[in-house]
Design brief:
Elements: H1 15-25, E1 31-32, E2 41-44, E3 47-50, E4 53-57, E5 60-64, E6 68-71, E7 77-85, E8 91-93, E9 102-104, E10 108-113, E11 129-139, E12 144-148, E13 159-160, E14 167-176, E15 179-190, E16 194-198, E17 210-217, E18 228-232, E19 238-242, E20 252-261
Antiparallel strand pairs: 1-4, 2-3, 3-6, 4-5, 7-10, 7-11, 8-9, 11-12, 13-14, 14-15, 15-20, 16-19, 17-20, 18-19
């Protein structure tokens, strides 16, 4: 038969089948999960240490349980990556089903890649190599500096934002599959033309934001005429400026939600 169903009684599900399923469920998005220390990278000279964490890469769950180290090439720039290489062979010890059976997985490792373009084959359609950048690096003969390249959690928990003005009983954000969601309930007071908060510095496309904002002034139960304006700095930081159209400066309270994709 040319048709099959992998989740069928007595059928065999290979790692490739399993990865294809999870990749589809995650929207074919590779990203870091909010686990362990999120692959935090520190550098001493030319030696980088990658802390614990988990990521879904092309549907494969990758985990570092004990910090890994890698040497950064001198006088170069590039990326420190999680590398999946399906051309490599894993080492098998013992017999499957026995208590002493184990596998050394050689198809995943950490590497410092001294180039500006990484290889990202479609592993679920015949590809072999996928290099997932954790940080970018620039090195001299004796030292290196790094910067976060892709700190995207597929599904983070709600994180509290401390407002820069006013008082919030619930001002939070979360990230799910590359989309950041910001929500606020019972925020007060907000002064005219005030900046409410600054998000972490992610790169955001300004033309792909969705807004659902309700504002009311302190003397009326009807909706105010305020609008929300998102301002994006050159570093990618996001601020929300509330600029009511009323001629007189008033105090506002309200609730809103914002969502937009992050790179």
């Amino acid at each position: 038969m040319a048709i099959t169903m992998y989740q069928a009684d007595r059928n065999f599900v290979s790692p490739a089948n399993d990865a294809s399923l999870y990749s589809g469920l995650s929207g074919d998005i590779s990203g870091i999960l909010n686990r362990g220390n999120n692959f935090n990278v520190t550098v001493d000279g030319l030696v980088a240490t990658i802390d614990t964490g988990q990521a879904i890469v092309a549907g494969r769950l990758v985990e570092i349980t004990i910090p890994e180290t890698v040497t950064i090439p001198a006088n170069s720039s590039g990326y420190i990556c999680l590398v999946i290489d399906l051309t490599k062979t894993n080492d098998v010890f013992g017999t499957a089903g026995d208590s002493d059976y184990s596998v050394t997985v050689n198809q995943i490792y950490v590497s410092a890649i001294p180039q500006q373009i990484v290889t990202q084959d479609d592993l679920n359609n015949g590809g072999s190599v996928y290099e997932f950048p954790l940080v970018s690096f620039t090195s001299t003969a004796t030292s290196a500096t790094t910067s976060t390249h892709r700190a995207v959690y597929l599904n983070s928990s709600w994180q509290t934002i401390v407002p820069s003005t006013g008082t919030a009983t619930r001002l939070q954000y979360r990230i799910n599959n590359g989309i950041i969601y910001v929500t606020c309930n019972k925020l007060y007071p907000i002064q005219q033309n005030s900046t409410l908060f600054t998000m972490p510095s992610w790169t955001v496309p300004s033309d792909t934001m969705n807004f659902d904002i309700v504002l009311k002034n302190s003397s009326s139960t009807s909706n105010g005429s305020g609008i929300g304006i998102v301002q994006i700095t050159s570093t990618g930081a996001v601020t929300l400026a509330l600029t009511p159209n009323d001629s007189a400066s008033q105090t506002y309270y309200g609730w809103f939600s914002i969502s937009y994709p992050i790179n």
